[in-house]
Amino acid sequence: MKFNDLVIDLSQRSVILGGERVKLTPTEYDLLKILATNADKVITQRQLLQQVWGGHHSESESHYLRVYNSHLRKKLEEDPTRPKLIVTESGIGYRFVTPE
Fold this sequence. Notes:
Helix content is 35%, strand content 24%. By secondary structure, the chain is an alpha+beta fold. Helix 1 packs across helix 2. It starts with a strand and ends with a strand.
């Protein structure tokens, strides 16, 4: 999957940004993979919790998502405080925005 200078190689479980390999934890990678394979669609917090961590999770565990998305933004975003790639849809979930 290629999004401008971001390349996600699903078969190798690797992420390249601007020609440099980005080191992600398995959880960060799984979260990014779900968001990127559903680019431009809102993925609910519940869906992400189930797909990344498995089992039944409640919305009260959404702090996991905030922490891991923060880590991803620091590694992938130009300005993590103003994300353009992984955006929060308040009260719903997250969206991976396809770069223009």
